[in-house]
Amino acid sequence: MARRARSRRDTGAAAIAAPPSPFIRRSLPFFDVLDEETVVKLEGQVDWILQEVGIEFRDDPDALRIWREAGADVSDCRVKAPADWVRSLCAKAPKEFTQIARNPERSVTIGGRNQVFAPIYGAPFVRDLEHGRRYGDLDALEKLVKLAYMHPNLHHTGLVIVEPCDIPVSHRHLDMLYLHMSRSDKPHLGAITEMSRAEDSVAMAEILHGREVMDKHCVIMGNVNTNSPLLVDKVVTQAIRVYCGRGQGIIVVPFILSGAMGPVSTAASVTQAMAEAMICCAFAQLVRPGAPFVLGNFLSSMSLKSGAPTFGMPEPVISNYAIGQMARRAGLPLRCGGSLTASKIEDAQAAYESADSMHSTMLAGSNYTLHAAGWLEGGLCTGFEKLVMDADRLGSYQKVLDHGLVVDDESLARDAYGEVVPGGHFLGCGHTMRNYTEAFYEPKLSDSENVESWEDGGSKDMRVRAFERWNAMLEQYEQPELDVATDEALREFVARRKREIPEAWY
Amino acid sequence: MARRARSRRDTGAAAIAAPPSPFIRRSLPFFDVLDEETVVKLEGQVDWILQEVGIEFRDDPDALRIWREAGADVSDCRVKAPADWVRSLCAKAPKEFTQIARNPERSVTIGGRNQVFAPIYGAPFVRDLEHGRRYGDLDALEKLVKLAYMHPNLHHTGLVIVEPCDIPVSHRHLDMLYLHMSRSDKPHLGAITEMSRAEDSVAMAEILHGREVMDKHCVIMGNVNTNSPLLVDKVVTQAIRVYCGRGQGIIVVPFILSGAMGPVSTAASVTQAMAEAMICCAFAQLVRPGAPFVLGNFLSSMSLKSGAPTFGMPEPVISNYAIGQMARRAGLPLRCGGSLTASKIEDAQAAYESADSMHSTMLAGSNYTLHAAGWLEGGLCTGFEKLVMDADRLGSYQKVLDHGLVVDDESLARDAYGEVVPGGHFLGCGHTMRNYTEAFYEPKLSDSENVESWEDGGSKDMRVRAFERWNAMLEQYEQPELDVATDEALREFVARRKREIPEAWY
């Protein structure tokens, strides 16, 4: 069952960029929270939404044409489709697939028993202990890309770790992609906000990886939200057409604040998310059978006081467990959860909420987890300290998932009981000497010393230690090598497209 | 499957003392992390320890006499016993039992699908935002007992929420018990440190509950640690003889810091804990067949830098899941985990570690959880803020466990989809209006407002809000009624015993 690991230890500058493994190969069993009768009832509701309620596809006549040609019931822009047909289309999507990184050692496999952690996506604001809260800019994004690249517990760098608000909206995707492609060699995402930006992303990926690799492999993915409830706009369908049309991956995520974009019920919101994502998966398979697809779920609860979204609460926790089981039954790779919180700063609230959210995310088997590190303020703000704090905890989750409970002759340690008498101690015994260096996860940011040592060191709380760590990491940053001609071609592409695309700030 | 709850909402002063329910009746399935082959291998190791290695019972000739008379292999003080026999003795312990509270509405059922949360136990120091870190005293303990009584998410008040260090050690148990009996009407524990103190605890419980109730029911329990590895001293055997001899409950907990009190391996430490606790359970059943017994496990990992214990790490997380499964197979109620951390203050480290520790504790099915709230500094310090912060999160866990995912016609909300158009919102629809007040857990200490509101409110972090909350709670405290004659009898008992027992400070 569980594997015994002999991973390299993260001990210094060189090791910072070396992950314990490029993604998680889970040995821990999955946790099924729903009995058969219940899950069948939920699937029945998914089918009912697909068949009887239908989902609207707006603003993209090509999408409606594709649906009509495939034989769906399309009335105005509402698509109703037999659930069996939708499920048979979804079955064409790979249960797991590999996203190739430009450094092959960093390629990740998404789906099945594999799990991948990526940083926060999409925040307009950024915060750190020295400069406080401010709009994100390209400088902040560059630092965050470097940190995501260097951090051993992040497998993937996402894309919009923060919005570079100092760059025109119409040019941002070019600068963002170039940062991910040049400052890191981990896999990342492409842009989706307009069809041309998705096309630029795919074009830059082709420059980076070469046409031949791209023809055969997934090298880039887009991540896109439906307009819940039950609405899929052209941002989604065009992104699917661009990415999947080129054999690349797409992640479609209904964001449902229960009571607003879905019924005020976790069960209903989960079924709605399944229906919205599955109809998009079916659409992707119509565009290109076998296109890599990740089924997303992003469910939040609500404060009764103000209607503000809340995170890390029991409703999204249970929705993570439930959606994990439903996605496994559907045979689709899953994105859900993350280290989510409504807290404005890196206080205990942020950590409690993030940990409960992420503990359930990882146990639920989320195959690709955006927002695994750095999220503050309901996703409006990226925290530099929060990024390395969350990521420090991700190493613990990776050990739980990778290793489970290792049970073999060595771990049962019978020889130790021949050496140690009752009431004695195992500190120096042979088994301990053979195993202690690999026995425990070594967090970087937890202080476990006694109170006197901690006070002597300045009574630093975790935020301060995190601030010191990310600054130290950046000082040790070394840019991964990139072929000079490729780099030149990427720069030329960016420069040319910036000349072609008018500057727009919204 | 999951139950639909219509619990009373905690809305004000009066409601503060009213828990959503006096204990958790779990509808969520259990999470089994071990396959059959692995769990059989672990049980084989437990049997090997019991039969071949043996466990020493020291300093209590009566305990050795009981073992010899029962037919165990006793050599010097090492007891070896056929595993089948130990398991058949353990089978005499109830799978679940009820501890009667003096207010019957607060009685708790321990074992099976039931889970009970209690505060930290045994810290010599106490900390709060106003007074900082200091030795515990009777005044602090009184406040903490009141808070544990008032908090809706704590089901049980434990005993030594902090050590009252201003009271002679030899008299402390009397004052502690009187506080729990008079300031609260929730169930609590008794003392164990010396045989006479256990006897005093049982005698006071008899005054409080009456002989007749006590003859028929568990009204008090002791919580005691083995001297791992493989050593059971007289504190344990005498506590078992006193509590179980009177038909009361006992919790026996091997505290194993892997690499010191057990091999540097989670698998071996879990089997050692099982063996140590099961031999004590067998002993308890020899003392009195059917005596309520809780099998404990308290496993910590270690910092490689200093050898200091660490908490909330992957090794204790996985041990919680594994021990939960093994305890269910053994048919014994379980105590494990808690909201544990090595942090000195209520920062993000404390919250991350506590949440991961407690999330795994609750999912593991720990039936009785000491240290569910208030723990800091590896258990050396009780935090007033930490107590209410942790307890706020316990309400979320209770909802996850009690409710699971509620799936029925109302929660599937099909009528809502008749009202809401694609791209619309569910805010005012009938289903939302019928359900929103009960839809979401309402934490007291999470701030989910936007950054402007939060800043307008003074940018208070969770510690500050927690400080304000526990002070507000104490202002609203009302002592639960206690029969005057009973109160008088308890006071007389305490006064008499203080005259009889010489003051001792160690």
Note down, in words, how this protein is organized.
The structure is a homodimer of 506-residue chains. By secondary structure, chain A is of the alpha/beta class. Chain A has two domains: 19-404 and 441-506, TIM Barrel, CATH 3.20.20.480; 405-439, no CATH class. Helix content of chain A is 46%, strand content 14%. Chain A is built from 19 helices and 20 strands. Chain A has helices at 13-16, 36-53, 61-70, 83-90, 138-150, 169-183, 195-209, 211-216, 234-245, 266-287, 314-330, 348-364, 384-403, 409-412, 414-419, 430-439, 451-456, 462-475, 484-500, and strands spanning 24-25, 55-57, 73-75, 78-80, 96-99, 108-111, 114-117, 125-128, 132-135, 189-190, 221-225, 231-232, 249-253, 255-257, 293-302, 309-310, 334-336, 368-369, 375-376, 381-383. In chain A, the strands form five sheets. In chain A, strands 10, 11, 13, 14, 15, 16 and 17 form a seven-stranded mixed beta sheet that branches. A four-stranded mixed beta sheet of chain A has the order 3-4-2-12. In chain A, helix 4 (83-90) packs across helix 10 (266-287), helix 9 (234-245) packs across helix 10 (266-287) and helix 10 packs parallel to helix 11 (314-330). The longest helix of chain A has 22 residues, at 266-287. Chain A is globular. The N and C termini of chain A lie far apart (52 Å). The model of chain A is unreliable at 1-17 (pLDDT under 50). Chains A and B meet through helix 2, helix 10, strand 16, helix 11 and helix 12 of A and helix 2, helix 10, strand 16, helix 11 and helix 12 of B. Chains A, B: One of its GO terms (molecular function) is methyltransferase activity.
